[in-house]
Structure formats: C-alpha cells, structure tokens
Amino acid sequence: MRTTIVCLLALAALATPALAQTPASKGLEIYVVDVEGGNATLFLTPSGETVLIDTGNGGAQAARDAARIIEAAKDAGVTKIDHLIFTHWHGDHFGGLQEVARQIPIAHYYDHGPNVQATPATDEFFKTVYEPLTAHTVVKPGDTIPVKGLSWRVVAAAGNVLKTNLPGAGRPNPYCAESKPQDPDPTENAQSVSSYITFGKFHVVHMGDLTYNKELDLMCPNNRLGNADLFIVSHHGQAISNSPALVHALSPRAAIINNGTRKGGQPDAMRVLFSAPGLEDVWEMHFSLLSGQEYTVPGAFIANQIDQQSDAMPIGTWTPPLPGQQAQAAPTHNGKSNYFKIVAQQDGTFTITNTRNNFSKTYRPAGSNSTR
Ligand SMILES: [Zn+2]
Q: 247: CA distance to ligand 1 center in Å?
C-alpha cells in the first residue's frame, strides 16, 4: 500500500510538468479496465481532468479490482479522480469504492439517487462507506457533468430518459421495428446513469447496464442521440441490453465489451454487434465461453487470458447453468490483467490499444456523420 502511494506521488511530480507543456496536442484518453465482468472506465482529458465511471467489484474481489484501476491510473499519470460516476447500485459497479478511495483522492460523486433493489450488503455500503464520504450529486437526464474540454451529457438516470434530441440528432430510427420490447426490468440495471460524451468531433457512449426497454424509450421512434464513434457495450455485452434500436442507430466504428469469461458475449448480443452498420471491430475484455469460437472475435482484439489457459477454446457456444444448479467453478483470473487504452483526437480520429499484446488500430474520421 505504502509503495503504491509513494509511486503515485513520484508520478504526480513527473506527470504535472509534462501535462502543462503539451495540453493542446494531447488527446482524450480512456482506459477500460478489466474488473472481470464489472465496470471501471477512466477518462483523462487533455487538461488533466479525470472521470471514473464505476469502481469494479466488492467483497473478496475489491482489492484486486481496485489495484487494477490504480494501475491504469498510474500508467495514465493520474493522481486524483475529479468526478466519480456510479451508474447504479450493483456490486460489480460500486463494490470497489472503499479500496479505490483509500488509494486515490476522489473529489466529487454522481449517482442516480436511491437504490431500488435493497439488499443487506448495499444497505451496509450506504451506511458505512458512501454516505460518510463527501457530497454527491444526483443526476437526471439532460444534466451536464462539468468536465473541462468535454460535453458530458447524462441521457438516462433513475429509469428516466432524455426527452429532447442532442444537437444534430432526432431522425426517425429505422431499427425500432426490429427491437421488440422485453419483459419489464425492475432491477437497478434499468436505473443506470448513461452518458453521451463529446470531445470535438469524437463521440463515445457509455450506458452502464441500462436494459433493453429503456433503450427503446430513449431511441424510439426518433434517435435522440445520433451517432457515436466508440460504444462501450452496455451491460457487459448481455442480450437483455444492446437492442438494434440503440446499437445499430449509434452506428459506432468500434465497440468494447467489459465482459467476463462467463458474463456477456452471448450469441444474441454478439449478433447485434456484428451486424451493426459501420461497426469495424468489437474488442473484448475476455474470451467469453458464452460466445464460443462461433461468436468470438480474433484473439488480437481480446485483452485478457485466464490464469490457467486451456489448450483449446470451445468451438460451440456455452449456456451457463441456471441459478441454483450445480455450476462448475469459473476459470480464475486474479493474475496479471490488461486494459484497453483509447486515445481520441478532436477531429474524430481515435486509436484503441490492447495492452496485452500492444495490438492497436486507428480509426480515422468517417467523412460525414450522415446517418444522424
Ligand atoms: Zn454490471
């Protein structure tokens, strides 16, 4: 712990002059951290301001996930979190807070308001961890999170969605017809704080775990968001989110899934991604057993292996046992972990790098965003 703090301080001393020298030429950096099917996504603006969306898992995984977040922050030269957004009150999104907050100062918190899915563990979290911390802001659709150099719009929160069009958006959405509403979702997922982030001509969408019917509320009959260049895939790549009405209408050039080996990446979700117009590549945090080889992506686009890699990956897709059935233990990944780093420029160019193999790809501006 002490070593980490000392290293961070040393890095801070090194990083500050560098940032001060080249603020105009630096891009927006985004780090999608491996928290094993949870979420932790870090943004660093050219002016040095930082936003973290979610803090990974709690319980026995909290120390592991916090260490991974701090490692990405160190690599980025980040020594403070200016804005921490909690998408919703599920443990894979807020669980690591206490561990993260111990290791890096956090200035301000944003959330959707009260938890609609109380459990003893979340009640305890609010009482002992969250409420004693500093003030937090409850956001609603249409709100702006004040990040210098970015336009950060909240487009969904607490089950409500944006009712007006973002600038330039609002065309009829042809993908609504093929997106049939699913069963109502009474869980915290549907409460997710969702963000549409603009840096010059670069747009990135992070919906948290917002579920299917809320996507339809937001995107139908008219596409209120317009296009995106990068889509952080909703809900770890599960098919109870990621409707064509959202994913196809956004028409992103690249998508990154924060999936686990047995969470997200099901065929139904992968089909929607692979058939999205304009989408060049899907990047996955892990090979998903649920995808099998049938629905996975080339290994170069996968950031993490498991601790004991098997010789062969399953060809067919895999259905996890229903809850309550005897389940085989999931393959573990507590060792070295890798993240995706994105550097975006104001002209819309962005590069994604897989830090496992240093494979990277640059996406150039698409000419005109004519499908808005
Ligand atoms: Zn989740």
A: 18
